[in-house]
Amino acid sequence: KNQVEQSPQSLIILEGKNCTLQCNYTVSPFSNLRWYKQDTGRGPVSLTIMTFSENTKSNGRYTATLDADTKQSSLHITASQLSDSASYICVVSRNDYKLSFGAGTTVTVRA
Amino acid sequence: NAGVTQTPKFRVLKTGQSMTLLCAQDMNHEYMYWYRQDPGMGLRLIHYSVGEGTTAKGEVPDGYNVSRLKKQNFLLGLESAAPSQTSVYFCASSYGLAARSYEQYFGPGTRLTVT
What we know:
Chain A has 111 residues and is mostly beta strands. In chain A, 0% of the residues lie in helices and 57% in strands. The relative contact order of chain A is 0.34.
């Protein structure tokens, strides 16, 4: 069973609108949580990394939140652009080498 | 500074054939990783290396072998390809452990089809 669950599986939004992606995890022990953006046909690129002591982190129009007590994270995209069309992957790190990857949320931004 | 590069980008193999995927990084990173990505699933770790001359098994190592003879290169081998190994393979590297919040940098991927 995947220890990192993302929702929704996919979503379509209009250009300029906001959206929020969810990530729930059961990975333990917890070290940090990352959000990656993966464009079609490319490798994932890091957006944010948060440790258990951080509850929000921004990277431009991307804002990630973390609630380590409830083991939930969200990624908020503000004023979406066509270039935001991609898969967004939530990744949780334990206190060793291992990263647990979610299956991703596919975001499609339409003009 | 090319980052992480992978060769080849695409490959079609017949069942039973062998091949080697090459990963190279120019960031002087100690840690290197091979993942596979399948539809509807998260990336899964095949093998990894914590430094030149070292390798270790990840979550799904069966059917694969790796070597890290030079710090900048990490090779993934398939000795006898099977249709279940049809996937997109990603190489990644990092300066330090993921648990210490070091960034992992990914290559562009290799799309492998085994018929």
